[in-house]
Amino acid sequence: MGESGIGSVEDIARRAKGASRALATLSTDVKNRALAAMSEALPVHMDGILAANARDMKAARDKGVNDSLLDRLMIDKARVGSMSAALLEVAALPDPVGEVVKGWKTPNGLRIEQVRVPMGVVGVIYEARPNVTVDATALALKAGNAVILRGGSLAMASNLALTKVISEAAEAAGAPRASIQALPTADRESVNRMIKLDRYIDLLVPRGGLELIETVVANSTVPVLWAGAGNCHVYVHADADFDMAEEITINAKVQRPGVCNAAETLLVHRDLVESLLPRLVSSLQAHGVTVHGCPTTQTLPGVVPAVDADWSTEYLGPEIAVKVVDSLANAIEHINTYGTLHSETIITKAYDAAQVFTAQVDSAAVYVNASTRFTDGGQFGMGAEIGISTQKLHARGPMGLTALTSKKYVIFGSGQIR
Amino acid sequence: MGESGIGSVEDIARRAKGASRALATLSTDVKNRALAAMSEALPVHMDGILAANARDMKAARDKGVNDSLLDRLMIDKARVGSMSAALLEVAALPDPVGEVVKGWKTPNGLRIEQVRVPMGVVGVIYEARPNVTVDATALALKAGNAVILRGGSLAMASNLALTKVISEAAEAAGAPRASIQALPTADRESVNRMIKLDRYIDLLVPRGGLELIETVVANSTVPVLWAGAGNCHVYVHADADFDMAEEITINAKVQRPGVCNAAETLLVHRDLVESLLPRLVSSLQAHGVTVHGCPTTQTLPGVVPAVDADWSTEYLGPEIAVKVVDSLANAIEHINTYGTLHSETIITKAYDAAQVFTAQVDSAAVYVNASTRFTDGGQFGMGAEIGISTQKLHARGPMGLTALTSKKYVIFGSGQIR
Asked: How do A232-236 and A263-269 pair as beta strands?
């Protein structure tokens, strides 16, 4: 990237900071009108968007890009329709900005309010999916933030076309001009510049594979909000209801195995080795799941021996690691050692076991007698989510609009001094 | 540091993680008993603590360390008494752990609770003040965390003596053995190792100068909570009450100029150039404050011309930058451009100006008609504080016990699957 290009990343960030000042005090009505205008504009500009995407698709095919990546890159009328619908869904969510989180009076008469405010400027770094352009912008804007979009090079034409349509619509509806901007280049250097611009950018949201996230986290001076990997566990306690244990195990593993809240390891209490373990293993196998088993589990038909790496693996597919544990304490120890501390569940009838499991498992979401698959902004009733955080600071678990906000103190006095 | 030393930083962190599991579910009663036992143990071991400090002081004097640093390093009976009292104050604070922050039921009958939990392992990196050993440990422990202490090399003997006393007292009162540990070395390498141990350490709290904080922030893979610098502003609007403007300006600047919530810049509306500015400037000068003035302010007697760097300077002493601004908007623009976004105040009688200032100033604490000096955990009614954050993520403004906690979701089901 030449000098002018380097300048432009900073110029874009500086303009975003300026826009964020005005966005911070924009009324909910204007923000919602902007989101509605963006929603309307997408189908109006359908032909241009599809044409831009066709150019990206052709270039990607010429490069020999694989089918699953091509699918992520592809936009058709239905997908533009989904983006358009998502904008209206975000418009319908409550505005997090302005919430008085806490408020009190001090003995000397100061009235202190802790108020929810926008983060400021949010940078989104993503890969091949052009829908992130629209979905991430909708959430950032609703939370009162300016957004800087840096999509992958494969989707460049699609992203610029989408950004042009939604940013013009937002501006016409009353949002500041620089509320929504895309970087004009998708090279590495643009990311390297962006993640050091803590003067202007308040938060980075990397959306994509583990490698992207790790690169951003390791090198950014801007705070990063990321969705963590999910090595989720189902633990079947000695007193579990057998039908419930089977239903939850199967649901957690096979209902949608490619997502972060799907189960990757099944832990079974030793008391159940003869009574339930064979049923769970054969049910998993009947659902097409390859079972990687501990020494005890390996004695069952069709089970592949598990190696140590299996306990740490997020298969994201029809495979599961199964281990027999001697006690609740061993199960918790295994989860806290090998898990990514995303979502775990215990199947039990025992009050005590439920209390101990939920208290001692150090995960973002800890369940009793329910599938791990519920860790999701929509299922939790938050509406659209940015992702599911396994971090312990700021936002943990499903991240809704409030994850894109900060808080500040406003203090009303009448001449108080110390 | 040799191989054994490198091993030991990781061993200490691993043991801390183990202790944190037990600490997370320790009752408030046991934690408070541990804090009380630590408080009692300090005066009992007074002689040993003072002897260790005397060794540190002698070594520091032999090195030619300056007087202000020697004062920070010094412990006497009164200072040990303060540490002992601080432990009881923290014991008296409400326990943040276990708070159900939110709770609701989903349509399918899941009961979801968002519960406040300890962060896990907190690493404290500090410089010459041995009292941090005790104060930081008290807060970390009350919030259910294991703590790893890495103090400065000058205070090594003092810190190890204090750590031995409080960790033994805590263990005798029922806290896990590795709840409180100090690194046995104070070299750079021990910090470099510590800030990369995100496997075991959940949060780092650097307590000390800007250089220490910047080094930790730039290189740590562990999340960092830090207290930011305070370039705080007093803005006197055109309609301000003159007496209040003078009282607050003087209080914010001179009551304790060495702290982060003291004022460093005074902005005065142009309408007040003849009526109030001379009074404010001469009052500041009468209080021994050197005034660095903008071109208009420079025309007053004894005012030093301000250079651009003055607007960004945290003097932390009897100096102030004074600038005449044309409007409220200019004042806000100046603050958002040059400030560290810590604490700012407007002096005004106008409803509108108060609304605009509090909405548009992007600071952790924004005041109307009160001194910036109130940004403080004690003044806010939080009790002891870890510092004042100017970050926008996780904790902003005075950081009390909750800043050392995380939240997790606990979900109670009855067999729900998706």
From this structure: parallel
